[in-house]
Amino acid sequence: MARDGLPGSGANPPIPEPADRGVAPPADADVQVVVLPIGDDAYAIRASEVGHVVASPVVTPVPGMPATVLGVCNVRGHIVPIVDTAALVGAEATGTPTHAVVVHARDGEVGLIAIGVPSFSRLRELVGETHSAGQSGVHRIDGGVATLLDIATLLTPERLRAP
Fold first, then answer.
1. Could you give the angle at the alpha carbon of 148 between the alpha carbons of 42 and 122, nearest 5°?
2. Do 125 and 118 meet the contact criterion of CB atoms below 8 Å apart?
3. What's the gap between Cα 121 and its chain centre?
C-alpha cells in the first residue's frame, strides 16, 4: 500500500506549507536568535549578528562618554564599547548586569548588556508591532515573546550619543 498521500494510497494528501498556499511566512519567522533578558522584558538579536557572549564582563568606564555607553571591555584582545541596552530600548533595567552580548555593528563590535543569562531560541510569528526606533516587532519565541532588535538602527552613532 502506498504512503504519504500518494495517489491510490487512500491517505490524505499532506497539508501544504504556507509558501505553497501562496501565503509567505514573515521574513523574520523561524530565525535563530539570542534572547537578552532586560528587567521583565526579553529582546532578541539575530544569532547571525552575534559574535560573542561574555559572562561577567569587566567594564572600564571611559570619561566623557555618553550615558548610553557604560565603558569598554577587553573581549579576546579587542577593546569593545559596552552599552546600556535598557537605556537604548527605553526599558526599565532592574538587576545587576550579568552578561554582554557582542554584536557586529556597522562601525565595529559593540557589547549589549543583559540583566540575566542570554539564551538561544527560534523567532516565531509576529504577534505585535512596535514603533520604537531600533525595534522590529514583537515575536513569539520558545517559552514566551521577545522584541526583535534591529542592530543597524539601534546602534547608530546618533542613538549612542543620545542622553
1. 80
2. no
3. 10
